[in-house]
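Hello again, I could really use a second opinion on something today. I've dropped the whole record in just underneath, so have a look.
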Amino acid sequence: MSNGMVYIVGGGPGDPGLITVKGLNALRRADVVLYDRLASSELLDEVSVQAERIDVGKEPKLHRRSQAEINSLLIEKAGEGKTVVRLKGGDPFVFGRGGEECLALAEAGIRYEVIPGISSAIAVPAYAGIPVTQRGVTTAFAVVAGHTGGADSDVDWDGISRVGTIVFLMGVEHLSEIVSQLVAHGRKASTPAALIQEGTTINQLVVIGTLENIVEKAQGIRPPAVFVVGEVVNLQEKLDWFGKTESTPVKNLDS
């Protein structure tokens, strides 16, 4: 086994202040940092000037490096005895392929540690004034990969549609299909819905509507965006703390 070490670090949903203390300490100690597109660029300012930085970010239909190549890089750099940080947006184990990377490291005999991050599934709605659970409204929420929104996906739409709050990540491209599936499986068209672009950042944009009109209202919204469905969206107007912060020019499109 090598003397190197890999830290799989969740960098949070966009606001650089939301990284954990443990994650930040690992980043500052790193000899090598492999970072994702959705990890805050400001976090890279915390990396030592001597450290090697490798951009392994992935965009829809455009991958700088394959997952296999990323796995190999982690193994290679750790095999050289280096401290390696794999910096990811959100949480590594929430649609972040952190599990795949850990399996590759384990099979190669490389030491690793997972440092969880704040997931955009809960933080982005929170910054938009939407609690994913609320007493008297719902005690359950589900997180779904939005890119699996097509009719031929393996999503249990019957089960998902019955959950109080549903949070879709990476769902902009398939928004219309997601809405159609939910309504087709019993969710009322009048159900409140919100789409939040670039959540937790100064560029945050919130679109409020219902399943009946959210697709039309969300024209022009681009990734990264989080789609929230459920009665908790009705709390947004009262709980929109971030949008009311004077130093935070957040837009709210609710008409």
